[in-house]
Specification:
Layout lengths: L2 H15 L3 H11 L4 H17 L7 H15 L3 H15 L9 H18 L10 H13 L3 H19 L22 H22 L1
Helix pairs in contact: 1-3, 1-9, 2-3, 2-9, 3-4, 4-5, 5-6, 6-7, 7-8, 7-9, 8-9
Length: 209
């Protein structure tokens, strides 16, 4: 996927993602302070606005850096900082690239996840967004093409979200609930799943048009 198409794809996907704000708010209210819906909405809108100002010859790495900056500046939440840090780490893997392949996407997602793990002092099984990110990265790395990779990434992330219901939250405000967090779906992992689904759905609409 070349830069111009990448820019447009991100904007379409984020425009779709904001439709899940209420769901993410409700999930986050059950485990945290309920601000995830706002974080995602403000961040998505800020990224869309920023990408609209970028020149057509901006590189994939420059696009990713702009996404990180815009998302971080949109609001001061911990999730915004973690996502922005992940995007910035991922942008480094795109240096020198003009066309992003599914394997490049896998490397980008994994780098972002590893950064979130380090900065958030978390690991898979702690019931966080990381539980969905890393299985999705694995799916992309094993895929022969983008369409197959996206479908597999969604399947892996969806399974991970289901698994989080049986886990106890071990990081962030949700960890205060201790055993009471078991049975509740992790909002961060769900947000990542919804982004992948938004990427798929916005592309389907674009193809029809």
């Amino acid at each position: 996927m070349e830069s111009r198409e990448l820019n447009a794809a991100i904007r379409r996907s984020l425009a779709e993602l904001v439709g899940y704000a209420d769901e993410l708010r409700d999930l986050d209210q059950a485990l945290g302070d309920g601000d995830l819906g706002i974080t995602i909405s403000l961040g998505a809108e800020a990224v869309i606005a920023a990408l609209e100002t970028m020149p057509e010859d901006a590189t994939p790495a420059e696009i990713a850096k702009m996404c990180a900056k815009a998302f971080a500046n949109a609001n001061p939440s911990t999730m915004a900082a973690l996502v922005a840090g992940g995007l910035l780490a991922g942008s480094k893997t795109l240096a020198g690239l003009d066309d992003v392949t599914v394997q490049d996407a896998a490397t980008f997602v994994r780098a972002g996840g590893e950064n979130i793990a380090t900065r958030g002092k978390t690991q898979i099984g702690d019931k966080t967004i990381l539980d969905a990110i890393m299985p999705a990265a694995d799916a992309l790395a094993d895929a022969p093409d983008g369409a197959t990779g996206l479908a597999s990434a969604i399947a892996n992330a969806e399974n991970a979200v289901v698994v989080t219901r049986d886990l106890q939250s071990r990081r962030g405000r949700a960890s205060w609930l201790q055993e009471r967090s078991i049975g509740l779906q992790d909002p961060g992992a769900t947000a990542f799943l919804r982004f992948l689904e938004s990427w798929r759905d916005s592309h389907a609409v674009e193809r029809v048009q």
